[in-house]
Design goal:
Strand content: 15-25%
Shape: elongated
Radius of gyration: 19 Å
Structural class: alpha+beta
Order of helices and strands: EEHHEHEEHH
Distance between the termini: 52 Å
Number of strands: 5
Largest sheet: 5 strands, mixed
Oligomer: single chain
Length: about 200
């Protein structure tokens, strides 16, 4: 049996279930360029939500109104989600072999896009760009947690005696991955200690 029919794929996030993707739009070329530290990485998609304003206060108000919320209803300027999918090579006897399990991942990052960037002062633009770079840096760490988690998932699942037990191992490991991401946010105050504050 192909293990993908035995093991369900899992969708995790740094802060609960993801919002409706229809709330966001594909990131523009400008955002992709500004977020190239993550947008150019494999298996990673960047989406954005529009914010506007002519000064720091109005831009902050726009972000506070439109920023994504996690499953607990907490809003954050940016969020990173990831999905793991499991598969294994089929065998002639129809049995699943844990040692052949592969783990694939996809990462989704949601970032703010300042629609009025060309209409604000040089000073305001520099402040926004500095903030945005720090947000990208923070979210890149969440992505790294997910990627490292995929490697660890593969290791623990392949060590399971059966594919059924591999599911149990995977569930436990995915909880640990999610907790690592939560702890990272707690340590950095969702990026504030790294300067991701606007």
């Amino acid at each position: 049996m192909n293990v993908s029919t035995v093991l369900v794929s899992a969708l995790l996030s740094q802060a609960g279930l993801p919002p409706q993707l229809s709330d966001f739009q594909p990131a523009s070329a400008a955002v992709l360029e500004a977020a190239s530290a993550i947008s150019t990485l494999p298996d990673t998609t960047v989406l954005s939500y529009p914010v506007s304003g002519r000064d720091r206060r109005s831009i902050r108000a726009s972000m506070s109104e439109k920023s994504p919320a996690n499953a607990e209803g907490e809003q954050h300027d940016a969020l990173t989600f990831w999905r793991y999918e499991f598969g294994a090579a089929p065998f002639a006897d129809g049995q699943c072999r844990p040692e052949t399990i592969e783990v694939r991942y996809t990462v989704l990052v949601v970032l703010p896009e300042l629609m009025t960037r060309d209409q604000i002062s040089v000073r305001e633009r520099a402040e926004w760009d500095r903030y945005f770079a720090r947000v990208v840096n923070h979210e890149s760490r969440h992505r790294q947690i997910a990627v490292e988690g995929a490697d660890r998932l593969r290791e623990v699942m392949r060590a399971a005696p059966t594919c059924e037990e591999a599911q149990v191992f995977a569930a436990s490991e995915m909880e640990r991955i999610a907790q690592t991401s939560v702890e990272f946010d707690a340590e950095t105050q969702h990026g504030a200690t790294d300067g991701a504050v606007y």
